[in-house]
Amino acid sequence: MSDKKPYLLGVSGGSASGKTYLLKQLMNRLPAHQVTLISQDNYYKDLEFQTLNEEGRINFDHPDALDLDRFIGDIEKLIAGQTIQIREYTFNNPNVVPAILTYKPSPIIVIEGLFIYYRPELRNLLNLKVFVDADEHIKLSRRILRDYAERGYRVEDILAQYEKDVIPMYNTFVKPFKDTCDLIIPNNHHMEKAIDVLLDHLTLRTK
């Protein structure tokens, strides 16, 4: 890797807004050696270090559920040209053996997660801030399909968590940063043209 400082792209948005699809398109269409993707999701604290709320529950949609200090520290190491490793977060699924993830420095570093704009020391590192947006009812239907099929959650539990945690935390810790972003991508139906524009922009950064 050269001495040139990497280009940092941030991708955030509400739960089930389409961040994962966008990221898959970027990673599939950019040269593998040119880009590193680091996800906030792998920085959730272990259950024994989580704090219960006033109802005696863990609110996984609150920034305090994550080790954001380590997340920011690891990103700073990547910027400095260091390779980092972290244990994969498996959403507390006992049937999944977590892998050890290795992140290597590269010309483009993509940072994704709900709260990547919440902490100013991370927000100020980013060269381009992207926000993926969708209407609330669309995000809810996508989340039900995802959590039921992929994580085995009951529909009634998904709806309860969405009402108690997801929406209030989104409105408090995520949505306020939407209008500070450089690019807002609406994704009620599709975002293919926006992805093409973003890919063109990132490709120029590697030349």
Task: Give a written overview of the molecule.
By secondary structure, the protein is of the alpha/beta class. The chain has a single domain (7-205), classed as Rossmann fold, CATH 3.40.50.300. The chain is 37% helix and 17% strand. It is built from 6 helices and 7 strands. It has helices at 19-29, 68-79, 120-123, 136-151, 155-174, 192-205; strands at residues 7-13, 35-39, 84-87, 100-103, 108-112, 128-133, 183-186. A 5-stranded parallel sheet has the order 2-5-1-6-7, with helices on both faces. Helix 4 crosses helix 5. The longest helix has 20 residues, at 155-174. The model has no long low-confidence stretch (mean pLDDT 93).
Sequence-ordered SSE layout with sheet pairings:
Elements: E1 7-13, H1 19-29, E2 35-39, H2 68-79, E3 84-87, E4 100-103, E5 108-112, H3 120-123, E6 128-133, H4 136-151, H5 155-174, E7 183-186, H6 192-205
Parallel strand pairs: 1-5, 1-6, 2-5, 6-7
Antiparallel strand pairs: 3-4
Question: What are the key terms here?
Answer:
207 residues; alpha/beta; 5-stranded parallel sheet; 6 helices; 7 strands; globular
